[in-house]
Write a structure and sequence with these properties.
Layout lengths: L1 H24 L8 H8 L4 E5 L2 E10 L2 E10 L2 E10 L20
Antiparallel strand pairs: 1-2, 2-3, 3-4
Length: 106
């Protein structure tokens, strides 16, 4: 019985993690600085660079898979944000950060 309760708690808690990231990410707006983003989302799990362009990726795991948020910067200022989901390896974000496609911003 304890094992079933633990598994149920884990799934519920994991789903809440996805929701928390999405809620926090809603506070990101164009024109904010890197410091603003760190205050809202914390340290990114992945950073990629292309000249003055940067993409910071954040991830949370949950029942529906891993949820990723990409915050886009130009010259250290937020220019936008995109999201994507991974259902392949739920629970291990580090292996599934996408390589940034600078042309299509994905």
């Amino acid at each position: 019985m304890k094992n079933i309760l633990f598994v149920l708690f884990f799934y519920v808690a994991s789903g809440c993690t996805n929701t928390k990231l999405a809620t926090k990410a809603n506070a990101i707006e164009p024109g904010q600085t890197k410091q603003d983003v760190i205050k809202i989302l914390g340290t990114p799990g992945d950073k990629q660079f292309n000249d003055k362009n940067e993409a910071w990726q954040y991830c949370s795991t949950g029942i529906g898979g891993d949820k990723f948020v990409v915050v886009w910067f130009y010259d250290a200022i937020v220019t936008g944000m995109t999201t994507y989901t991974n259902n392949l390896g739920v629970g291990n974000c580090d292996k599934f950060y996408k390589r940034i496609d600078w042309q299509s911003r994905q």
